[in-house]
Write a structure and sequence with these properties.
It is found in: Cell inner membrane. The protein is about 80% helix and about 0% strand. By secondary structure, the chain is mostly helical. It is elongated.
């Protein structure tokens, strides 16, 4: 199971990296062609599609590496076991929010099935499905963090 999770993490990180490079290239090409009065409209739309996916993939990557902004001025003064409990509660609240994102994200994707991008005939659902898929990925990360926190808390009580 750990191997599958690590493989999924590597794939997610590679995809996010490729999407970022593709976005930069597409926007650069679009700006150059616009300069010569030959705009390529589809490049901006593909960049927007990739950007939507990159946002949620990147959010999960940053969440996994604890890179999101946090204010821990008060919490860091707590004893270590209380800090872990606060971390668990925080991840449970985040998980609840992610479940809401998943539910409404699938609704949004379903509602956008008939809507297509202007310059190419791909359903806008391909873009909006990034919300529930990214939130699901973050929910898995949150569950892993809760599990690790419980193990850490358990090992602290065993040491005492």
């Amino acid at each position: 199971m750990k191997r599958l999770y690590r493989t999924a993490i590597r794939i997610e990180e590679k995809i996010a990296g490729y999407f970022l490079v593709a976005i930069v290239i597409l926007v650069f090409i679009s700006s150059i062609t616009r300069f010569f009065d030959r705009p390529i409209i589809w490049s901006v739309e593909i960049a927007q599609l990739l950007f939507a996916w990159l946002i949620f993939l990147g959010a999960d990557i940053v969440y996994r590496y604890k890179g999101h902004i946090g204010i821990d001025l008060i919490v860091e003064k707590f004893p270590e076991d209380k800090q872990i409990i606060v971390r668990i509660i925080n991840n449970i609240i985040i998980s609840f929010f992610l479940c809401i994102l998943i539910f409404y994200g699938f609704q949004l994707s379903y509602e956008n099935i008939g809507r297509t991008f202007q310059s190419f005939r791909i359903s806008y659902s391909v873009c909006t499905i990034s919300v529930p898929i990214g939130a699901t990925s973050m929910l898995v990360t949150s569950a892993v963090e809760i599990y690790k926190s419980f193990l850490e808390l358990k090992s602290m009580t065993v040491r005492r």
